[in-house]
Amino acid sequence: ADLAAEGIAVRTLLREGHPSRVLGQLIGEQGIELVAVGAHGKSMLVAGLLGSTSEHLLANAGCDVLVVPQV
Q1: With the C-alpha atoms ordered 40, 59, 64, 32, is the resulting torsion angle positive or negative?
Q2: Coil vs helix vs strand at 27
Q3: What would the mean pLDDT of 16-38 be, rounded to a whole number?
């Protein structure tokens, strides 16, 4: 779907670094309202359902977080 055609503003940013730290910085700097992340990363936290980045963002992001399940 073309989100811009639906009136939804989307920006793609590419940064290097630890994902939780970089996303936390970007949320503050860019005034981000929603972050979408995958539900399962390399670590086995919260009974293996969430990766450390998604768990950290849910607790600390300061904006809405959409956690997308692994398919």
Answers
A1: negative
A2: helix
A3: 88
Mean pLDDT of the chain: 80
Tokens standing for 13?
Answer: 């940013």
Residue 5 to residues 13, 32, 34, 69, Cα–Cα distance (Å): 20, 20, 19, 26
Q: What is the C-alpha separation between 35 and 18, in angstroms, rounded? A: 16
**Residue 68, amino acid:** V
Cα–Cα distance list, 2 to 6, 35, 50 (Å): 7, 18, 29
* C-alpha separations of 16 from 1, 6, 52, 69, 71 in Å: 28, 30, 17, 24, 26
| pLDDT reported for residue 65 | 92
